C-alpha cells in the first residue's frame, strides 16, 4: 500500500487531501466573486450611455426634443455617435484592462493576491472620477476609461486566481462560476440605472451610471481587508505558518486539524515538484518559461498557455459582447423596436437568470460537456438570427413578428452562452496552470480576453454601422459569430481536458498523464506527497516536520530557505516534531540557517534545499 512507503502519516489517502466543504468557504468565494461587478457594470452602462440623447447631443451637437422623444433636424436612424467615437470610447477600457491583466500577475506574486485586488479598486476609482469630470471633453473621458480599465484588469485577473486557490475542489467550478454570475448582475444593474436616467436632460443622465461604480470598489476593497490571503501564495513565498492559518480559515477547521496538515503538505509537495519542472532563471527568463515545452505534451507550459488564451479568445469571439456593448444601437437599427433600452434590459435579464444553472451543470456535467454543447447551441441560434434578419426581418420588410423572433433567438443564444462558455472559460483558466506560473498564466489568459474584447469593440461599430466607411452588415453579422462558434466547439473538443472534482494539484497530474479526450475517465491514484516519499524519503520527512511546525498552535512561522522552511520570528525555538532540538530563537529551517523572510518565486531553485 502507498501508506507503507511513507515515513510519516501524510496525505497518501486521497480522501484526506481536502477538508469537507463549509459555509464559510461558500461565503468567502461569493464575496470575492463580486469583482465581476466591475466588468459587467461597465459593459452595461457604456452600452446604454452611447445611445442616450443627452450624451449624443453633448458629443455631436445634434438637438433632441425630449417631449416628443425624437431628434430635431436629423433622421432618427442617423441620430447617434459616429462609429469612430463609439469604437474609441468602448475599446479604450479594454486596452487598459489588457495591460492591467499582464501587470497584475507579477504584482500578485510579489505583494499577494488580496492587496493587488485592493490596489485595483483604488486605480478604478481614479478612472471613474476622470470620466465623471469630463463634459464634452473626449480626451478626458477616454483617458478616464483607460485608467479605469487598468484597475479592472487587476481585479479581473487576480479575482479568478484568488478564488481558484481558495475554493474547495468539489464546488470550485460552481464558486468560480459565481464570478460570471456577478458579471451578468453588473450588466443588469447598469441597464436598470441607465433605463432610469436615459431621459434626463442634464449631465446626470450619464454621470449617475458612472458614479454608481464607486459602490462596487468600496465594498470589494473594504471586504478584502478582512478576508485571508491565498494559502498557495504563502506556500510559494515559503511562509508555511501563514499558509496554514489561511487554509484553516477558508476551510473552517482548527489549524492543528489533520485535514489542514494533509492539504498543506500536498500543496507544498506539488509546488516543489513544479519548481523542479519549471525553469527558474532571470525575470525575463521566467516570463519566457511560460511558453516552454512541447506542443504535443498536454502538461507543458505552452500547451497550458494555449489552453487559457484560446478559451478566452473563443469566449469573446462567440459575439456575446457585441450584444451587450452595442445591443441598444443595434436594436435601434432594426427599425420596428420602439424602446431599444427595454429590449437590452430583457436580454440582460436573460443573461442573469441563466447563469446560475451553470453552478450545478459545471459540477455534474463537467467543463468539456458545457463548452462543446454550449458552442453547438450558439451556432444554431446565431444562424437562425442571421437567416431571419436577412429575410423577413429586414428593415424594408417592416415585419415586427420577424424582429420579435430575432430577439427571441438572441435571448436563446444568450442562454447557451450564460450556462456554458460564460462561466466555464473563467473556471478553466483558474485551474489549468501550475503554481509557479499560475499568476502569470491567468494574467496572460485574462489579457487575451481583453485583447479580443478590445478588437471586437473597435471593429463591431464599423461592421454594423450605417455611417460612411462602415460595412452596414446588420443582422448578417450573426453569420460571422455563428461560424466562429464552430471553431470554439472544435477547440473545446480537442484541447480542453475535464477538471471536474479534482484538486489543482491533481489537475497537474491528470494533464501530464492523459489527453483531453480521455481526461473524463482519469482518476487520481496517489498524491504528490506519496511520490515525494518514494523519490526522497529524507526530503519528505523534512517536509512533514515543517508542516507539523507550521500547524503548531504555538505560532511557529515558516518561510522557504536554508535546509528547509525557515522560521520567521520564532520566539519559541525550533521544536522538531520528531524529537530533534535546535537552538532556541534561531531563525532558520530545521538544520538550516537562512535568514530569508521567504523566497522570491522567480529566484533560482538552488535557494530551496531540503
From TrEMBL:
One of its GO terms (molecular function) is carbohydrate:proton symporter activity. Belongs to the major facilitator superfamily. Sugar transporter (TC 2.A.1.1) family. The chain crosses the membrane at residues 21-41, 88-108, 115-133, 139-162, 174-196, 208-227, 305-326, 341-362, 369-393, 405-429, 441-465, 477-496. This is Major facilitator superfamily (MFS) profile domain-containing protein. Residues 28-500 form the Major facilitator superfamily (MFS) profile domain. Its main location: membrane. It is a multi-pass membrane protein. It is found in: Membrane. The keyword Transmembrane applies. InterPro entries: MFS_dom, MFS_sugar_transport-like, MFS_Sugar_Transporters, MFS_trans_sf, Sugar/inositol_transpt, Sugar_transporter_CS. Residues 579-610 are annotated as: Disordered. It comes from the Eukaryota. Keywords: Membrane, Transmembrane, Transmembrane helix, Transport. One of its GO terms (cellular component) is membrane.
Amino acid at each position: 500500500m502507498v501508506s507503507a512507503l511513507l515515513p510519516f502519516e501524510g496525505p497518501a489517502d486521497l480522501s484526506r487531501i481536502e477538508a469537507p466543504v463549509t459555509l464559510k468557504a461558500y461565503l468567502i468565494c461569493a464575496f470575492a466573486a463580486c469583482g465581476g461587478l466591475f466588468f459587467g457594470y461597465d459593459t452595461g452602462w457604456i452600452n446604454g450611455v452611447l445611445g442616450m440623447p443627452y450624451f449624443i447631443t453633448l458629443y455631436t451637437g445634434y438637438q433632441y426634443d425630449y417631449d416628443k422623444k425624437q431628434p430635431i433636424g436629423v433622421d432618427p436612424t442617423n441620430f447617434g455617435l459616429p462609429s469612430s467615437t463609439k469604437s474609441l470610447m468602448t475599446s479604450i477600457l479594454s486596452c487598459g484592462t489588457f495591460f492591467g491583466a499582464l501587470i497584475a500577475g507579477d504584482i500578485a506574486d510579489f505583494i499577494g493576491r488580496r492587496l493587488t485586488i485592493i490596489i485595483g479598486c483604488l486605480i478604478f476609482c481614479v478612472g471613474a472620477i476622470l470620466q465623471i469630470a469630463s463634459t464634452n471633453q473626449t480626451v478626458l473621458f477616454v483617458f478616464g476609461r483607460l485608467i479605469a480599465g487598468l484597475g479592472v484588469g487587476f481585479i479581473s485577473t487576480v479575482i479568478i486566481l484568488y478564488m481558484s486557490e481558495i475554493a474547495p475542489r468539489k464546488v470550485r467550478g460552481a464558486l468560480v462560476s459565481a464570478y460570471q454570475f456577478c458579471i451578468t448582475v453588473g450588466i443588469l444593474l447598469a441597464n436598470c440605472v441607465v433605463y432610469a436616467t436615459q431621459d434626463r436632460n442634464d449631465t446626470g443622465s450619464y454621470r449617475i451610471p458612472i458614479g454608481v461604480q464607486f459602490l462596487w470598489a468600496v465594498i470589494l476593497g473594504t471586504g478584502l481587508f478582512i478576508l485571508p490571503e491565498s494559502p498557495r501564495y504563502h506556500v510559494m513565498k515559503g511562509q508555511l505558518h501563514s499558509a496554514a492559518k489561511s487554509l484553516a480559515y477558508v476551510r473552517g477547521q482548527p489549524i492543528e486539524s489533520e485535514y489542514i496538515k494533509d492539504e498543506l503538505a500536498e500543496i507544498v509537495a506539488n509546488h516543489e515538484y513544479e519548481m523542479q519542472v519549471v525553469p527558474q532563471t532571470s525575470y525575463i527568463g521566467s516570463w519566457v518559461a511560460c511558453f516552454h515545452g512541447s506542443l504535443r505534451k498536454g502538461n507543458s507550459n505552452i500547451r497550458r498557455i494555449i489552453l487559457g488564451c484560446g478559451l478566452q479568445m473563443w469566449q469573446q469571439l462567440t459575439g456575446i459582447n457585441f450584444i451587450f456593448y452595442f445591443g441598444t444601437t443595434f436594436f435601434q437599427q432594426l427599425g420596428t423596436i420602439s424602446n431599444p433600452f427595454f429590449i437590452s434590459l430583457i436580454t440582460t435579464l436573460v443573461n442573469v437568470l441563466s447563469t446560475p444553472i451553470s453552478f450545478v451543470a459545471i459540477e455534474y456535467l463537467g467543463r468539456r460537456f458545457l463548452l462543446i454543447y454550449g458552442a453547438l447551441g450558439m451556432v444554431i441560434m446565431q444562424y437562425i438570427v442571421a437567416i431571419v434578419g436577412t429575410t423577413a426581418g429586414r428593415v424594408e420588410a417592416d415585419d415586427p413578428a420577424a424582429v420579435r423572433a430575432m430577439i427571441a433567438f438572441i435571448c436563446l443564444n444568450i442562454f447557451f452562452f450564460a450556462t456554458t462558455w460564460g462561466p466555464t472559460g473563467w473556471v478553466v483558466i483558474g485551474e489549468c496552470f501550475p503554481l509557479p506560473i499560475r499568476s502569470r498564466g491567468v494574467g496572460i489568459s485574462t489579457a487575451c480576453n481583453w485583447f479580443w474584447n478590445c478588437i471586437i469593440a473597435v471593429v463591431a461599430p464599423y461592421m454594423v454601422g450605417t455611417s460612411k466607411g462602415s460595412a452596414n452588415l446588420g443582422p448578417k453579422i450573426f453569420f460571422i459569430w455563428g461560424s466562429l462558434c464552430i471553431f470554439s466547439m472544435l477547440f473545446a473538443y480537442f484541447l480542453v481536458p475535464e477538471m471536474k472534482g479534482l484538486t489543482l494539484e491533481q489537475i497537474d497530474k491528470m494533464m501530464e498523464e492523459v489527453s483531453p479526450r480521455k481526461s473524463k475517465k482519469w482518476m487520481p491514484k496517489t498524491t504528490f506527497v506519496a511520490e515525494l516519499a518514494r523519490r526522497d524519503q529524507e526530503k519528505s520527512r523534512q517536509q512533514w516536520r515543517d508542516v507539523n511546525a507550521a500547524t503548531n498552535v504555538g505560532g511557529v512561522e515558516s518561510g522557504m530557505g536554508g535546509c528547509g522552511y525557515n522560521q520567521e520570528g520564532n520566539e519559541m525555538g525550533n521544536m522538531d516534531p520528531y524529537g530533534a532540538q535546535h537552538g532556541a530563537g534561531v531563525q532558520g529551517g530545521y538544520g538550516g540557517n537562512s535568514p530569508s523572510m521567504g523566497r522570491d518565486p522567480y529566484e533560482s531553485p538552488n535557494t530551496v534545499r531540503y
